[in-house]
Amino acid sequence: MATQSYHLYYQITFISTFLLFIPHTTQLQSSQSWSLLRIQHLLNYPSLLSQWHESTDFCYGAPQNAPASVVCYQDSVTQLHIIGNEGTPPLPKTFSMDSFITTLTRLPDLKVLTLTSLGLWGPLSAKISRLSNLEIINISSNYFFGAIPHEISRLSNLQTMILDYNMFSGQVPDWLTNLPLLAVLSLRNNTLDGNLPDSIGSITSLRSLTLSLNNLSGDVPDLTGLKNLQILDLENNSLGPNFPKLGRRIITVVLKGNKFSGGLPPDVGTFYLLEHLDISSNRFVGPFAPSLLSLPAIKYLSIEGNRFTGTLVRNMSCNEELEFVDLSENLLSGNVPACLDPDNQHSKAVLYSGNCLGGTQNSAGKQNPFVFCQNQALAVGIVTPRKEGNTEKKKKTGVAVGIVGAVALGVLLGAILVFFALRRKNARKASKRAPRRLVEHASSAYPSKMLTDARYISQTAKLGALGIPSYRSFSLVDLEAATSNFEKSNLLGEDSYGQMYRGRLSSGTLVTIRCIQVKKGQPTLNFNHHIETISKLRHRHLVSALGHCIEYNLEDSTVTQLFLVFEYVPNGDLRSKISHGEDGQKLSWTQRISAAIGVAKGIQFLHGGIIPGLFANNLKIMNVLLDQNLGSKIRSYNLPMLSENTKAEMHGDKIDIYDFGVILLEIVSGRPITSYYEVQIMRSQLQSAIASDGAACRRAIADPEACNICSDESLRTVMEICLRCLSKDPTQRPSIEDVLWNLQFAAQVQEGWHADSGSSEDSPLSPSQPCRATN
Ligand SMILES: *[C@@H]1O[C@H](CO)[C@@H](O)[C@H](O)[C@H]1NC(C)=O
Ligand SMILES: *[C@@H]1O[C@H](CO)[C@@H](O)[C@H](O)[C@H]1NC(C)=O
């Protein structure tokens, strides 16, 4: 009977919703249809818009991913994408940029705009600033010329601006700091010149800065203030001479083809997230620090075409993840490190011709005789001062300072790199033929919308949302079909906000559907904003949002109910694989670290991968689910719709770090932790176990099922980071990057230990050995 009434209830709401839905989602305002047709006219009726007619249903008509597409929200265009063919010639003389932009501004809700390879020509009209909702613009590969108009600084919602392959001239604007959300700026291949404005160093929201292929010159302003900057591409300008000052979290640096000279600054050795470093074709001199090869994240390194000196030896160590190394055309001598030799397990490309290297096994390319490098190196030493000194004396001090500086620099760089090298060395101890690392590389997190709409970042970034079906809006019919009319047997649970159902979409995808009763009087504007944020919550380590469905009240058109559709993750929660071991199967130590890394990456995405970030997510081990491959996914995070206060709390990020610490504690101990009191007890046990010099003491705390085969160093690393996460003072808790780094280190150590389990120092101790903790 209950099911029957349910059924009826939903049928009624279905009918009422359906009636309301048609006018809301399928019919574009006629003025906007007119504007789209006018755009077609101004673009000279390109064949890719041949489907556009007066009767076209723009919001539902075009398939996704077509070269021309329109996305609407309610009855207004929010996205317009028209992607022409490469090499489209300029539009005829009669084309008027001003009319074109004026027409565009008649789509006032436009948030995402792609107009590429359409032959648009002329100065970019200042009227573009009327599109006040614009978040992403990509007008690459046209014939825009003149300065980038100052009026763009009024687009306060702008997050991504891509003006690549045009003919914009003048200087890089100094008003970009007025765009508070600007995350991606790409001005590749224009004719910009002059120095970079210092203000570029204060666009704190910036994540990706691409200025390659222009005529920029002079030193790069200090960018250490750009804490979010991950990608810097300055290829082929005339910038220099000093290596840019960058924050430690940088991932990609391309300085190829500029006028950088002198030595590399020592802090490059602290860029622990650096994956891609290309400083080729510059004028760098000084000793090459081979430890660059063993930076913890490095995959791509090119120093080709500089005058780096120094002796390489066979037994240097490299990051196993290296894919490409180009040392060609420098003044290096000695032997190519063995870790760069080709082997069957990794497809590495290594280039080193044009040096003075010997003893290489495969074709080393052309090498110079040793004396050549020796003489050139001496010459490099003498030619250092770039500014012509007035007197002989000045010149000499210049040289002396230069040399001392270079030596000091080298020592410092060496010291810092030794730190990493040592950590790695430990990890790699005897892992010569170790199995491939289980841990994936830190994939940077970006708003998925930016990813799909402005494919701007390297391959690694895309991994974040890889394999998750694209976000869409559902009809109630879809959801009823998926849940057999919300049948009881599909009910997964219920909380104060509403019910949660399991369902299967017509595509076969299993989903979880959350029904949220909307409070009366919740402003609709806020609501759309929340939906926008939810649509970005898509990441490999989150139970990701797949879409939504909105139900309205017939009388006053307010929202009454909201359905959020999420992935369905089949393999149970993390606790059941850690401390309960329901099916008798508990995760091994390696699997535990890997699960923890997944959770940390999910947190990293919630904090930094979307704007604004989501903090204070009330993370719990029960809310970490595992997929078929035991990959972890965070289920319940601070959904904007449900959180009362949307403001980021003080230390919100550090609250999450603490909660993560509690999860880690359970992962290590294998005991369910349910109270603050238990956390305090275990915390102090952990403290003395870490301080103790007996491995047995640590092992006594750890879950014996996981840690009968685990390396003490790996265990201690996890315990240490766990303890730091649980610091009482939030400011003492580590950053999420720090957490990730340590967990990945622990994973490597464990793997190296596996490969080398004969090692006496680390061999498993009998758990019965007494534990004498030093307090
Ligand atoms: C490399 O081998 C040399 C001896 O051939 C030794 O002195 C040096 O310490 C070794 N370096 C490393 C990093 O193992
Ligand atoms: C701009 O849009 C074009 C066409 O969709 C795309 O190929 C290009 O990658 C985009 N540019 C960036 C930097 O994302």
UniProtKB/TrEMBL annotation:
<feature type="compositionally biased region" description="Low complexity">
    <location>
        <begin position="757"/>
        <end position="775"/>
    </location>
</feature>
<feature type="region of interest" description="Disordered">
    <location>
        <begin position="754"/>
        <end position="775"/>
    </location>
</feature>
<dbReference type="InterPro" id="IPR050647">
    <property type="entry name" value="Plant_LRR-RLKs"/>
</dbReference>
<dbReference type="Pfam" id="PF00560">
    <property type="entry name" value="LRR_1"/>
</dbReference>
<keyword id="KW-0325">Glycoprotein</keyword>
<keyword id="KW-0732">Signal</keyword>
<dbReference type="GO" id="GO:0016020">
    <property type="term" value="C:membrane"/>
</dbReference>
<keyword id="KW-0472">Membrane</keyword>
<keyword id="KW-0812">Transmembrane</keyword>
<protein>
    <submittedName>
        <fullName>Putative inactive leucine-rich repeat receptor-like protein kinase</fullName>
    </submittedName>
</protein>
<dbReference type="GO" id="GO:0033612">
    <property type="term" value="F:receptor serine/threonine kinase binding"/>
</dbReference>
<dbReference type="GO" id="GO:0005524">
    <property type="term" value="F:ATP binding"/>
</dbReference>
<keyword id="KW-0675">Receptor</keyword>
<dbReference type="Pfam" id="PF07714">
    <property type="entry name" value="PK_Tyr_Ser-Thr"/>
</dbReference>
<keyword id="KW-0808">Transferase</keyword>
<dbReference type="InterPro" id="IPR032675">
    <property type="entry name" value="LRR_dom_sf"/>
</dbReference>
<dbReference type="InterPro" id="IPR011009">
    <property type="entry name" value="Kinase-like_dom_sf"/>
</dbReference>
<keyword id="KW-0433">Leucine-rich repeat</keyword>
<keyword id="KW-0677">Repeat</keyword>
<keyword id="KW-1133">Transmembrane helix</keyword>
<feature type="transmembrane region" description="Helical">
    <location>
        <begin position="399"/>
        <end position="422"/>
    </location>
</feature>
<dbReference type="GO" id="GO:0004672">
    <property type="term" value="F:protein kinase activity"/>
</dbReference>
<dbReference type="InterPro" id="IPR001245">
    <property type="entry name" value="Ser-Thr/Tyr_kinase_cat_dom"/>
</dbReference>
<keyword id="KW-0418">Kinase</keyword>
<dbReference type="InterPro" id="IPR001611">
    <property type="entry name" value="Leu-rich_rpt"/>
</dbReference>
<feature type="domain" description="Protein kinase">
    <location>
        <begin position="486"/>
        <end position="745"/>
    </location>
</feature>
<dbReference type="InterPro" id="IPR000719">
    <property type="entry name" value="Prot_kinase_dom"/>
</dbReference>
